[in-house]
Model the fold of this input.
Amino acid sequence: MDISAVVVLIIVGLIAGALAKIAMPGPDPGGILLTIVIGIVGSFVGWVVVYNLLGLANPNSTGLLGSILVATLGSVILLVLYRAITRRSA
Done:
C-alpha cells in the first residue's frame, strides 16, 4: 500500500464515519471526533476484511463508491464493537 492509497483511505474514512453514524444513530461517548477516528480506522478494517481476507474485489476495481461502501461497512463493525465494549464497562 503506497502513500496515495493511505490518503484515499483516510478521506474515504471521514465519509464512512459520517455514514456509519447516520446508519447507527444514538449517543456515543467521544462525539464527532471519535466518529471520525472510527471512520478512518473502519476504512482500513473494511479494506483488510473485504479486499484481503475475503478476496471479493481489488480496491482499484471498485471505484470510489465501492471504497466508500466497504469503509462504511468497516466503520459500522467498529462502531458496534465500540458500543458493546463501552456498555459493558459503564
Notes: Residues 31-90 form one domain.
